[in-house]
C-alpha cells in the first residue's frame, strides 16, 4: 500500500459517512497531501490548512478548489506532508495504548481470572 500512496499527488477522501476513515491516517502517514470531507474522525485529526484540507460533505466545488490549490502551491503540499506525518505518528497505535488503558481503567478488572 505504501507504494500506491507514494504514487499519489493528493489523496482525496470524498466520503459522505465514515467511521474512520482509515484512508485519512494512511494518507497522513505516507506523507500524501490530503483533501477530505468532514466525516468520522477526519475533523478531529485534520486541522484545515495545517496538515490537510477539509471540505463539507457533498461540496464538490470546495473539494475541487482544494485539489487545484494543492496543484498550484507546491509549498502548501510540502507543509501538509510534514505536518501530516507528525499527526499520524502522534496517533499511532503504540502511542494510544496508554490513553486506552487510562480510559478503560476501572471498567475492566485486571489480574483476576476468578469467576463467581
Low-pLDDT regions: none
The major β-sheet equals: 3 strands, parallel
Strand order of the largest sheet: 1-2-3
Distance between the termini: 47 Å
Q: Quick one: how many beta strands? A: 3
Shape: elongated
The structural class is mainly alpha
Average pLDDT rating = 88
H/E order of the elements? Answer: HEHEHEHHH
Number of helices: 6
Cα radius of gyration in angstroms: 18 Å
How large a portion of the residues is in β-strands, by DSSP E? 5-15%
Report helical residue fraction.
40-55%
Description:
There is one protein chain. It contains six helices and three strands. With 116 residues, the protein is mostly helical. A three-stranded parallel β-sheet has the order 1-2-3, with helices on both faces. Strand 1 (11-13), helix 2 (22-30) and strand 2 form a beta-alpha-beta unit. The chain starts with a helix and ends in a 12-residue tail after the last helix. The mean pLDDT is 88.
Amino acid at each position: 500500500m505504501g507504494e500506491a500512496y507514494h504514487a499519489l499527488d493528493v489523496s482525496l477522501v470524498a466520503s459522505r459517512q465514515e467511521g474512520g476513515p482509515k484512508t485519512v491516517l494512511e494518507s497522513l502517514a505516507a506523507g500524501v497531501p490530503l483533501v477530505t470531507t468532514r466525516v468520522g474522525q477526519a475533523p478531529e485529526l485534520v486541522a484545515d490548512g495545517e496538515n490537510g484540507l477539509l471540505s463539507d460533505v457533498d461540496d464538490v466545488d470546495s473539494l475541487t478548489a482544494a485539489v487545484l490549490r494543492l496543484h498550484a502551491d507546491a509549498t502548501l503540499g510540502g507543509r501538509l506532508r510534514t505536518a501530516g506525518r507528525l499527526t499520524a505518528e502522534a496517533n499511532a497505535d503504540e502511542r494510544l495504548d496508554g490513553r486506552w488503558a487510562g480510559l478503560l481503567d476501572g471498567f475492566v478488572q485486571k489480574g483476576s481470572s476468578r469467576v463467581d
